[in-house]
Amino acid sequence: MKNSVLNCFIFCAFALFTQNIQAQTISAADQAGITACYNAFMAAFEKLDAAAIGPLLTENAEQIIPTGEIVRGRANIVASMEGYMAFLKTQPKPDRMETKNVAQQNRYLSTDLILTTYTEESTLYFGDKSRTEKMTTSVIMRKINGKWLADLITLTPVMAMPEMGK
Questions:
Q1: Parallel, antiparallel, or unpaired for β 147-157 and 57-64?
Q2: CA dihedral 15, 20, 23, 28 (to 10 degrees)
Q3: Is 152 helix (H, G, I), strand (E, B) or coil?
Q4: Most CB atoms within 10 A, among 7, 52, 112, 159?
Q5: How far separated are the first and last CA of the chain, in Å rounded?
Q6: Rounded to an integer, what distance in angstroms lies between the CA atom of residue 124 and that of residue 98?
């Protein structure tokens, strides 16, 4: 009985502690670190520079690409990005592109682990035609030596679903 009461107390304390961590507002310093990582990633992607993405990833990072394939390890993610960027270089370039993040949220999973989720909406303009694409991304960021790095990246294209029963 004594062990049951002690175990119940420990479980309740752990549950309260976990809820408090998740409910905490991201500190300004951590938000700045996350934003710096995101901006560096986007700048490298816009330049189609896969090598510049490597330092933004943990050594054992994983990425789930839109096809559902899991790419494991920094070097493999960079190699996968190089292949994707080589493909992009063969595609017509838009005259201009507008990108915005919608529905972004960050929350602590632990003191050195943050989950950030957002949907990015990009409109590509080709002359008088345009195409809008949406991608929802979730990233688990890990703080290593004071720097926020991507540890897990999942990419989910946002697509219209067929109506039920049709």
A1: parallel
A2: -150
A3: strand
A4: 52
A5: 58
A6: 7
Measure CA 130 to chain center.
26
**Residue ranges in the chain whose pLDDT is less than 50:** 1-22
Pick the CATH number of 26-157 from 3.10.450.50, 3.10.320.10, 3.20.20.150, 3.90.1150.10: 3.10.450.50
Neighbour-count burial of 116, counting CB atoms closer than 10 A to its CB (0-12 exposed, 13-18 middle, 19+ buried): buried
Cα(51)–Cα(56) distance, rounded to whole angstroms?
Answer: 10
Eight-class DSSP state of 92: P
Compute CA distances 59 → 1, 64, 77, 146, whole Å. 46, 16, 10, 15
Q: Which residues pair with 143 in a beta bridge?
A: 148
pTM of the model: 0.79
The bridge status of strand 129-144 relative to strand 96-110 is unpaired
CA 30 to chain centre: 15
Distance CA 73, CA 132 (A): 31
Q: Given this model, what pLDDT does residue 160 score?
A: 82
Output the furthest CA–CA distance in the chain (Å, rounded). Answer: 75
